[in-house]
Amino acid sequence: MSARPDARFRARTKGGWTPAFDWGPQAISPIRRAAGDDNHPVVEALAELQRGRDFYAKRKWADAHESLAAADQATPLRAEDLELLARSGYMLGRDDDYVNGLERAYHAHVESGEPLGGVRCAWWIGHNFLFRGERGPARGWFARGQRLLERERRDCVERGYVLIAALLEHVFAGDHEAAHATAVEIAGIGERFGDQDLVAMGMMEQGHALVRQGRTQEGLRLVDETMVAVTAGELSPIVAGIVYCNTIAFCQSVYDLRRAREWTAALTRWCKQQPDMVAHNGLCLVHRAQLMTLGGTWPDALAELRRLGERFTEGVLNQRALGHAAYQLGEVNRLQGQFEAAEAAYRKASRFGCEPQPGLALLRLAEGNRDAAAAAIRRAVGEITQPLKRAALLPAYVEIMLAVGDVEAAHSACRELDEIAERQGTNLLGAMAAQARGELALAEGEAQAALVALRRACQAWQELDAPHEAARGRVLLGVTCRSLGDEDTAELELEAARGVFAELGAAPALAWVDSVTGQAAPAGDQGLTARELEVLRLVAVGKTNREIASTLVISERTVARHLQNIFAKLRVSSRTAASAFAFEHDLV
């Protein structure tokens, strides 16, 4: 045997060492016979390669990457296997490995006389650069793929992939009709050549373009049809992940909460089937946390956001997710009354390039800094022109404008929100618009109009399973009923709202409802209720939760809830700090 047996199986090419023999499964037995030794390095490399292919088929990404990399180190892989190595790296969040692997595969395809394989690699490289925000390299690779395609004077499926680059340019330019026409052509090419990935991406973009043109239900039906292909396992892993995340983000952007919840549940199941996947898990956790926040399961939302920060930080998709996760963390902290933590989270979101509004403006309002809140929300609304993106800001804009006495601005925002909600036709937008309209009517003393709008809003929030928003609506309903002289109904609404806020641990909202009902403590006590003051005094003299529960004849769980509210209202994080406050303000 030669001292360098692998030299028999390699050839030197312009692009570097590439295999001079077939790496296919059928090649293993002949090479084993030729080598006469199962432990021969080439036989071992071929076995490692087959293991890598098997792991890839089973979506065991870490094992697949390890085996394919080992085989590649022994003898450089062919283009098809280099693509498997690259995709495994992508699923593990290793974007550099992904691009490097595809670049090698591109050159291998071209040098072996397979330019269409090179076209696909060029497109996927450009796609990755585009998502990184590097549009120059992205356009360069798209152009390289286009140039290769132009040399092939025949119809082929790769033409559909190249068209996606043109489609994305139409989307960025806001030309929804051109985007739709291009998406139709892409899906048609995919159907003609039996490429399910291309069909799915074309149909998805058709749906998005139709919704952006105002043809909402028609577009969403196409989105649903696309998702059937994903959940049925008909798509490649990378395309499945892209379609999942794009669709959920799109459903949220058009305020279709039902679809967002359904497809997020499906994405969660898909992620669980691939426990070592990193690439799409971050966005999945953010989507889940957003829905949990709206649904009132705030501890679960915080747990999801912590998981993201601890594990899913690699890859361009996860880097994007970190900004949205920071904003969502700010939202939960703001709702709980943890204002310092909320501000830190909003600032982190901004560092990741995520707009911290309207959360930061609402935080300033909660802190009593109305001028800062108004300046921030006016700036944010002034920058956005797309109606659906403006809709996310308008409810906060109405609330803050009413707080600073700019009723005319609040009127204008309500009209705009009504128009968007009517055009889009989703329950979530309808609830947002009705609540804003009710707030405005209440501020103007139009109690009957406020009653109708707020009742509609509360019903919609309850149907959407959004307890915090529903409780906010009930507080406003209580105030409206009181203005109409109906004290019994007012008391029922306010009592129900207070119970929800207490259960959620929504300290600022609790302080608000207590101020409305007259249960708040005197000025200087930071809005503590009479019961919370009792708990604080007992904490200050060293009583445990069990002792406090026994003294006040309440449960330890209720004591813990009161403490959470006390800490939030006083902006402290310990019993020691709360006790210091009690002594400083002569409450003991």
Characterization of this structure:
Helix content is 76%, strand content 1%. The longest helix has 21 residues, at 316-336. It has a two-stranded antiparallel sheet. It has helices spanning 28-35, 41-57, 61-74, 79-91, 95-111, 115-131, 135-151, 158-173, 176-193, 196-212, 216-231, 237-253, 257-272, 281-295, 298-311, 316-336, 339-351, 359-366, 370-383, 387-403, 407-424, 427-443, 447-463, 467-483, 487-504, 507-517, 530-540, 545-552, 556-570, 575-584; strands at 10-13, 16-19. Among the domains are: 155-270, Alpha Horseshoe (Serine Threonine Protein Phosphatase 5, Tetratricopeptide repeat); 279-356, no CATH class; 426-508, Alpha Horseshoe (Serine Threonine Protein Phosphatase 5, Tetratricopeptide repeat); 520-588, Winged helix-like DNA-binding domain superfamily/Winged helix DNA-binding domain (Arc Repressor Mutant, subunit A, Orthogonal Bundle). The protein has 30 helices and two strands. Mean pLDDT is 87; it is low at 1-23. It is an all-alpha fold and 588 residues long. A hairpin with a 2-residue loop joins β1 (10-13) and β2 (16-19).
Features:
globular; Serine Threonine Protein Phosphatase 5, Tetratricopeptide repeat; mainly alpha; single chain; two-stranded antiparallel ribbon; 588 residues
Summarize the structure.
With 588 residues, the protein is mainly alpha-helical. The protein has 30 helices and two strands.
Task: Annotate the secondary structure layout.
Elements lengths: L9 E4 L2 E4 L8 H8 L5 H17 L3 H14 L4 H13 L3 H17 L3 H17 L3 H17 L6 H16 L2 H18 L2 H17 L3 H16 L5 H17 L3 H16 L8 H15 L2 H14 L4 H21 L2 H13 L7 H8 L3 H14 L3 H17 L3 H18 L2 H17 L3 H17 L3 H17 L3 H18 L2 H11 L12 H11 L4 H8 L3 H15 L4 H10 L4
Helix pairs in contact: 1-2, 2-3, 2-4, 3-4, 4-5, 5-6, 6-7, 6-8, 7-8, 8-9, 9-10, 10-11, 10-12, 11-12, 12-13, 13-14, 14-15, 14-16, 15-16, 16-17, 16-18, 18-19, 19-20, 20-21, 20-22, 21-22, 22-23, 22-24, 23-24, 24-25, 25-26, 26-29, 27-29, 27-30, 28-29
